[in-house]
Amino acid sequence: MSVLQVRDLRRSFGGLLATADVSFDVAEHSLTALIGPNGAGKTTLFNLITNLFAPDAGSVTFEGTSLIGLSPSAIARLGVIRTFQTARVFPGMTVLENAMAGHHRLLRHGLVSQLAWWPRQRAEERRLADRAMALLDLVGLADQADQPATQLPMGAQKLLEVIRALLAQPKLLLLDEPAAGLNDTETAELAALLRAIQACGVTVMVVEHNMSLVMTIADQVIVLEAGRLIASGSPAQVQSNPRVIAAYLGEEVA
Ligand SMILES: Nc1ncnc2c1ncn2[C@@H]1O[C@H](COP(=O)(O)OP(=O)(O)OP(=O)(O)O)[C@@H](O)[C@H]1O
Ligand SMILES: [Mg+2]
């Protein structure tokens, strides 16, 4: 069953067509990798889905609800949560507080947020902290839980951002180059985290340049080039597609 339907999505910046009539579906519980050369329109696609920018034309439907015209925070409350290509951790907060902020952001407008003194709410906070610690442990950051998040190396900040997004209880998680700037150990930790995310039943779209990672984790691969969707299918189908090989000329596809 498809949870996300993107149809004929289009967006220009000045004379540049950054997203050119892109259509695709994302199946529930699947992991879709979004690949394509620099400037292909991968981040723009996430920006259009989460309505940081409004599309010029086309539709985005999540679980039967049109996302067109909804605010980014309303879209987040529906369960569509994204990370940014450049890690954004909250300064002045510890690693653990940063992780838990993903969940708090969703509660901010609700009555629940005003009831922090309520025993049931305190128990909920403890459960959230336990979940955050378990995830930090999975990526080797549990030891640094009480350190200021800005003191983490860049790779660790990117992993922290993925954890924060996960604690926001996404139904659909959009990850923009989570592996960029990660060393080999951190990339292996990210792969473990992505597998854990999949096991939780979260649907994932991930922009990723690391082809061996894409080929091992993705159910579906979507290839963009100059704003256009030039191929989609299983990793094996996409890997042998001549247009994809041409778009990646000089780069490793296998
Ligand atoms: N806000 C904006 N204003 C003007 N041009 C933009 C804007 N956002 C994106 N673009 C342009 O749209 C095109 C697609 O950019 P986008 O960031 O989506 O590419 P990308 O596939 O994510 O690239 P990268 O791999 O470098 O992250 C680029 O030519 C970019 O310069
Ligand atoms: Mg990008």
How are the SSEs placed, and which strands pair?
Blueprint (H helix, E strand, L loop, with lengths): L1 E12 L2 E12 L3 E5 L6 H8 L7 E6 L2 E2 L5 H6 L2 E3 L12 H13 L11 H20 L15 H14 L4 E5 L7 H16 L3 E5 L3 H7 L2 E6 L2 E6 L1 H5 L2 H6 L7
Helix pairs in contact: 3-4, 3-5, 4-5, 5-6
This protein binds adenosine-5'-triphosphate and magnesium ion.
Magnesium ion (MG) binds next to helix 1.
In short:
With 254 residues, the protein is α/β, with parallel strands linked by helices. The chain is built from 9 helices and 10 strands.
Q: Overview of this structure, please?
A:
With 254 residues, the chain is an alpha/beta fold. The protein has a domain at 2-88 and 161-247: P-loop containing nucleotide triphosphate hydrolases (Rossmann fold, 3-Layer(aba) Sandwich), CATH 3.40.50.300. Helices cover 37% and strands 24% of the residues. It contains 9 helices and 10 strands. The protein has helices at 42-49, 72-77, 95-107, 119-138, 154-167, 184-199, 211-217, 235-239, 242-247; strands at 2-13, 16-27, 31-35, 57-62, 65-66, 80-82, 172-176, 203-207, 220-225, 228-233. It has a 6-stranded mixed sheet with strand order 6-7-8-3-9-10, with helices on both faces. Strands 2-1-4-5 form a 4-stranded antiparallel sheet, with helices on one face. Strand 7, helix 6 and strand 8 (203-207) form a beta-alpha-beta unit. The longest helix has 20 residues, at 119-138. The structure holds adenosine-5'-triphosphate and magnesium ion. Magnesium ion (MG) binds at residues 42-43, 85.
